[in-house]
Design goal:
By secondary structure, the chain is mainly alpha-helical. It has 22 helices and 6 strands.
Length: 513
């Protein structure tokens, strides 16, 4: 990067202010966003471990590859659940407290990317602009206000890279050991932590291969040994259930199906992850409003990448070389290892796009008066669009306007011992002690019928999948609803069916005209 008056920008307050802005956006989103099925699944295991000392997930029906999940939760990497349990013991349990754990790791992520970028480019302006882009980024804020493990995995991974840059000048073996420990924590949180193994070792070899010894490298793998022992000890409590759950989840939804078909993998990566996540396709479940505006952020990333690739001065920069290689590592692994193409996982690669955009915009800003105007305008549009989208999401207030009325209807009509069958999100209102069972099969092959059956976007999609893949299950659900249940509530994405009984019709029934 060229020298300039902005290179040594050092106001100490900028990064803390950005972190406060990010935290405020996450808190506002956490308080107003509807809970989601994934949050109910993962909270169930964390809650059970925190308050009963047991690793099972009671909110999920132990069916198929989730066999035994009410006793052991093996279907995902293990670290998220003890992290939750410790957090709940510290701050209490609620949907908001679950989401604040993600917010804390979002703050760690932004700080880690800042230190990584500053160490790589030795340019405070690039690092600060990267942090600003991440603090307002829709994907990052949504991840920081969502009860899933993705942002924790991402934070550990980028912390490994950031910590290495902070420590390598003083002590490479310590930097290596600390970085490897954080990579292991990332992998124990989510399978995409494997990205950071390759990214970390690329950085190490690129900068410090002459300083490595066999002893130093072997010692740095001690965290993998410790992590394997800890996870292995848990696995050995019920190894057959681990094979069923973890193996089944690895195959679910075609997660690994694209490894042998890279052309289809690239096509799907673009059309099913980026196009959907950035508003160029139909609304994803739970989304509304002018989501196509998010595509302007994607176009800004492409503009930044185009500037970097077409400018000799930037192409010849060592930091740019490294970021472009990291982009290739992240993109290839995400393309091949995630056949589901979930938008959550963009959290891993968005920091790289932000770094590239920051490099391009700082270069333009320093180049000319027109460059100052163009760079400032583009950054303003990107930040304003993302902040506006987040504010719009908050104003919608799906928690108060959609979820709460539906949950209150169930609570006002439930008797002790009644069970609601629906998306696991309902447990945040009804309880995680068996009051909710997430099983859209509606008693198929089990014979147990709940008092309430709740259909929203997740169940609509699941039932449509059953209609195509297992029509006998779909027919059972439709027939059972027709014969045994009555639609008593139909509003704001939620349909609530109550099982017919001789009891009077609930006074609080709420049907849309």
């Amino acid at each position: 990067m060229p020298d300039g008056v902005s290179r040594k920008l050092r106001p100490r307050w900028i990064l803390p202010v950005l972190l406060v802005v990010f935290a405020a956006l996450c808190v506002g989103t956490s308080l107003t966003k509807r809970p989601w099925s994934d949050e109910g699944w993962f909270a169930g295991a964390g809650y059970n471990l925190a308050f009963h000392g047991k690793p099972g997930t009671l909110v999920l029906e132990p069916r198929g590859y989730r066999e035994g999940i009410d006793r052991y939760t093996y279907w995902t990497a293990p670290l998220y659940y003890p992290l939750q349990a410790g957090w709940y013991r510290l701050v209490g349990f609620s949907l908001f407290s679950m989401r604040t754990l993600s917010t804390v790791f979002g703050l760690i992520l932004i700080a880690a990317v800042f230190f990584f970028t500053r160490g790589l480019f030795n340019d405070e302006a690039v690092a600060m602009l990267t942090a600003a882009l991440l603090s307002f980024d829709y994907v990052v804020v949504m991840g920081g206000s969502f009860g899933r493990m993705d942002i924790i995995c991402t934070a550990f991974g980028w912390a490994a890279l950031g910590a290495y840059f902070l420590l390598r000048e003083k002590n490479v073996p310590v930097a290596l050991l600390v970085g490897q420990t954080l990579v292991v924590l990332s992998g124990l949180t989510h399978f995409l932590g494997i990205i950071y193994f390759f990214a970390f070792w690329f950085i190490v070899v690129y900068f410090d291969r002459s300083k490595l010894s066999l002893r130093t490298v072997l010692l740095s793998f001690l965290p993998y040994f410790i992590g394997a022992i800890a996870w292995g000890a848990y696995i050995m409590q019920a190894p057959e259930l681990f094979m069923i759950q973890f193996g089944g989840n690895a195959q679910d939804g075609g997660r690994l199906a694209l490894l042998a078909d890279p052309v289809s993998a690239i096509t799907k990566e673009i059309t099913e992850r980026y196009v959907v996540a950035y508003g160029l396709a139909s609304h994803s479940a739970g989304s509304s409003g002018p989501v196509w505006l998010k595509s302007l952020v994607l176009f800004a990333y492409l503009i930044g990448l185009g500037i970097v690739l077409s400018t000799r001065q930037l192409r010849s920069c060592r930091g740019t070389h490294i970021v472009l290689v990291l982009l290739a590592i992240f993109f290839v692994i995400m393309t091949l290892l995630d056949g589901q193409k979930l938008s959550y996982y963009l959290l891993n690669i968005v920091p790289i796009y932000s770094i590239i955009l920051a490099v391009a915009m700082v270069h333009l800003f320093r180049r000319s008066s027109f460059g100052k105007l163009a760079a400032s305008g583009l950054i303003f549009v990107v930040l304003a669009l993302q902040a506006g989208g987040l504010v719009l999401k908050m104003r919608t207030n799906g928690y108060a306007n959609q979820f709460t009325p539906a949950a209150e209807f169930i609570k006002s009509n439930a008797q002790p011992g009644d069970v609601a069958c629906g998306s696991a999100e309902l447990a945040f209102a009804l309880g995680f002690e068996g009051q909710v069972v997430d099983d859209h099969w509606l008693g198929f092959e089990r014979g147990r019928l709940p008092r309430f059956f709740v259909i929203e976007e997740v169940y609509e999609e699941a039932l449509d999948g059953r209609r195509r893949s297992t029509p006998e299950v779909y027919s059972h659900v439709m027939r059972t609803l027709e014969l045994e249940y009555e639609l008593m509530y139909d509003r704001s994405h939620y349909q609530i069916f109550m099982r017919r009984s001789p009891e009077p019709t609930p006074k609080s029934a709420n049907l849309e005209p």
